[in-house]
């Protein structure tokens, strides 16, 4: 394919992406409620200086809490470390809440449920311009090592503390995920519809990330599993492998930096783009659209990278 045809192809591809994004946002307004967008998309330039604490809850019996579940229609979630041996939920808003129970929390059957489940009727399109901005801070002690499930329809999720868990499950419709500290969990599952996913350190026995539209950036990865973005670039620094690892992007580049002390088999497949590597592979087999090779001695793990439209780069 010559340069002109390649440029035309990419223009058409990104036009399709723009249309799909418009459809996603239209569905979001209808399905998630107007108030969802009031605190995120329509207030991106909002200054947080006037945010005030409107509610604070504390749960002391953390030994009896085996699961933490959040369910937010529209709110940013920030997870921080608690020096005390309890779990605190701090709700902040730029306006006084008419319904004091808008964000509530309770423990039932060893599960701490946090969400706006007492105000589901507020999800309507006329709330788009109400100007509310909500943020929930969840302070968790280091001693908590159980399960966390996060459901966000619209809102960012930020991890500002290390976590060492049994299971972490994140489902987000629209919003970014920022893991600023080390996240360690036996099983990690992330399902993101629209938004970027960034982690400084991600470690787990099984890690699955599925991002429909958005970039994925992991500065330090340790484990096995699958990472996929339908539309977006993926960058991953693989520190350690605990099994097979698959990474896939339909439209977007894949940049891998792999620890040179590891041994692995590699398979790269692409339809439109290039495959470049700074590593010296043995037993190489390649064509214009795939690359097979072995790195190191007696490899056990397999790394597979698949791209429809985009480049694959390995330690390059």
From TrEMBL:
InterPro entries: Toastrack_DUF4097. It comes from the Bacteria. The chain crosses the membrane at residues 12-33. Keywords: Membrane, Transmembrane, Transmembrane helix. Residues 65-314 form the DUF4097 domain. This is DUF4097 domain-containing protein. It comes from Terrisporobacter othiniensis.
